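tokens incoming
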């Protein structure tokens, strides 16, 4: 008998490429093209490294209280973690423990099935329609939980609040997770439904709209009972999940509403301009409410050839495998100047 027979073998999530290339237009991982709030930079310059001798606050009170203030919630309704991945993983481990399969779309954030496999959670991936929309009937039957990214990734498509509420209402006996990683770019949050449904957990992140992907800050909002259960699991694994700089700088970023609204508005405006330009070049895509566009070229040149030629010009996009998405590339939204360059190079490639 080998020790390997007792290894938990899984196929891991593959994160987006982080290449070290000078003068790169990096539009493959949906990072914000603008820097964090200037108040974050100021606080960072004043930070004392002497604090690093001590453990961070296990309750993460400074950040939790900031988020509670921003969203007009109780602090007991907020959970924070090391990026929304940590928050989602904790939620999977906490709430999905029945023999019934959890449900999520077949084209969505590709970490969901990884967590389900590593935690031995049964799951079913419900097929999206040809236009990447959800068939609501797929989520009306018996199950062990539901996970919906809204707007969805990588498609960019948004579900209406009424549509999401129908799913929550139909699944009152299980936890429904709504992953709102991209909602700040023109989507509609369902966070207010928490007052109506105690089985709803809304998960969000600072990585996109707050320009803090490098600090790894995620959070969830739900009823007090849901959050208490998640905290019990967290404290059973690692009490000190978040470091001091993330707690302090995250709170500062959360309070800077003016800068947050300014940068998200700029991303939205650039996205809308890019949509028009891509359509003129022969691309088609679902109407994105995110900081990316999931686009298919309808001409003769293949997706992989286009992506390769862009890379030669120091522009990196994200391509996914799978029959339904093999012709699509995900194009994150950069600055106006970056997207103008991308369109210029695409025109040259496709001429």
């Amino acid at each position: 008998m080998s020790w390997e027979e007792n290894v938990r073998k899984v196929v891991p999530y593959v994160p987006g490429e982080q290449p070290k290339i000078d003068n790169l237009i990096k539009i493959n991982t949906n990072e914000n093209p603008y820097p964090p709030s200037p108040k974050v930079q100021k606080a960072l310059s004043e930070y004392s490294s002497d604090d690093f001798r001590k453990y961070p606050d296990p309750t993460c009170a400074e950040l939790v209280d900031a988020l509670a203030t921003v969203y007009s919630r109780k602090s007991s309704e907020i959970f924070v973690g090391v990026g929304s991945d940590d928050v989602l993983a904790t939620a999977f481990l906490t709430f999905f423990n029945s023999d019934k399969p959890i449900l999520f779309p077949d084209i969505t954030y590709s970490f969901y099935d990884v967590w389900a496999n590593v935690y031995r959670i049964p799951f079913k991936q419900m097929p999206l329609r040809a236009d990447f929309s959800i068939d609501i009937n797929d989520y009306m039957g018996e199950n062990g939980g539901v996970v919906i990214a809204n707007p969805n990734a990588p498609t960019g498509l948004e579900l209406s609040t009424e549509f999401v509420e129908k799913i929550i209402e139909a699944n009152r006996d299980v936890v429904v997770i709504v992953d709102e990683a991209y909602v700040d770019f023109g989507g509609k949050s369902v966070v207010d439904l928490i007052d109506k449904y105690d089985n709803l957990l809304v998960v969000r992140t600072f990585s996109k709209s707050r320009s803090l992907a490098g600090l790894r800050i995620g959070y969830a909002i739900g009823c007090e009972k849901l959050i208490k259960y998640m905290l019990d699991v967290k404290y059973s694994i690692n009490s000190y999940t978040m470091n001091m700089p993330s707690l302090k700088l995250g709170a500062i970023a959360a309070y800077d509403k003016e800068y947050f609204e300014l940068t998200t508005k700029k991303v939205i405006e650039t996205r809308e301009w890019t949509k028009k330009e891509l359509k003129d070049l022969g691309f088609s895509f679902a109407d994105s409410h995110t900081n990316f566009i999931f686009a298919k070229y309808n001409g003769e040149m293949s997706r992989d050839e286009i992506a390769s030629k862009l890379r030669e010009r120091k522009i990196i996009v994200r391509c996914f495998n799978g029959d339904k998405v093999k012709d699509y590339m995900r194009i994150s939204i950069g600055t106006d100047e970056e997207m103008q360059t991308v369109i210029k190079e695409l025109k040259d490639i496709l001429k």
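note: DSSP finds ten helices and 13 strands in the chain.
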